[in-house]
Amino acid sequence: MAELSTIARPYAEALFATAKEDQQGLASWSELVNQLAAVASLEDVREALTDPRLNNAQRTELFCGLIKLALSEKARSFIGLLVNNDRILLLPQIAEQFDALKNQLEGSALAEITSAFALDEAQVQELVTGLEKKFGLKLKPAVTVDPALIGGVRVVVGDQVLDTSVQAQLARMRDTLAA
User: Fold this and answer.
1) Would the pLDDT of 42 be above 90?
2) Residues 69, 36: contact at Cβ < 8 Å?
3) Where in the chain is the domain with CATH 3.40.30?
4) Is the dihedral of CA 22, 28, 30, 34 positive or negative?
5) Tell me, what's the pLDDT at 159?
6) What percent of the chain has a predicted confidence (pLDDT) above 90?
7) Cα–Cα distance measured from residue 49 to residue 44, given in angstroms and rounded to the nearest whole number
8) Is the pTM of the predicted complex or chain greater than 0.85?
9) In CATH terms, is domain 107-178 a member of 3.40.30?
């Protein structure tokens, strides 16, 4: 079976092309797609959307009714397309790829920063400034804390990983000694 991200890609690219041409702008579409993904991720919603007693029109109306934002005709059409193709549950992957396309267009990327200790805003900003020079992109930080790192930080930007944690250094030392 094809990987979910492979199936989601054409939908994300088509939605992105539509959003670029729309006067609402990419930011509003991004917000909408992320809300659609959040709703589609809920277990109760997933169960309701796979209920065989509902037809596609009922599934579309049910899903549209759960969205807090006002839906344009294009957005309703997109939801209907996903329901008709049995792809509505792919919305989290579609949203992820849509945001990646948006970031690529803007010359930015998400920086997933994992630290052994909580970082204050000044520390995060200093780290992001250095990382932006290294990666040559405008970075949007998402910071989490993982005490298992012992010390240091682990940064993931796209498919690149910069791991300066004590845990990683200990693992490298163990591998060197074992060789």
Assistant:
1) yes
2) no
3) 107-178
4) negative
5) 85
6) 86
7) 9
8) no
9) yes
Q: What angle do CA 61, 64, 66 make, to 5 degrees?
A: 115
Question: In the CATH hierarchy, which fold is given to the domain comprising 4-103?
Answer: Peroxidase; domain 1 (1.10.520)
Q: How far apart are CA 91 and CA 39, in angstroms?
A: 9
Between CA 153 and CA 167 the distance in angstroms is 10
| pLDDT one-digit tens code per residue, 137-155 | 999 999 999 999 999 999 9
What lies within 8 Å, CB to CB, of 80 at 6+ separation is 56, 60
Distance from chain centroid for Cα 10: 16
Cα–Cα distances in angstroms (integers) from residue 32 to residues 29, 72, 83, 92, in the given order: 5, 10, 17, 12
User: CA-CA distance, 152 to 155, in Å (whole number)?
Assistant: 10
Q: Which segments of the chain belong to CATH 1.10.520.20?
A: 4-103
N residues, the chain? 179
Q: What's the pLDDT tens digit per position in 53-85?
A: 999 999 999 999 999 888 999 999 999 999 999
SS3 call for 40:
helix
Cβ-based neighbours of 102, under 8 Å, separated by 6 or more: 16, 26, 30
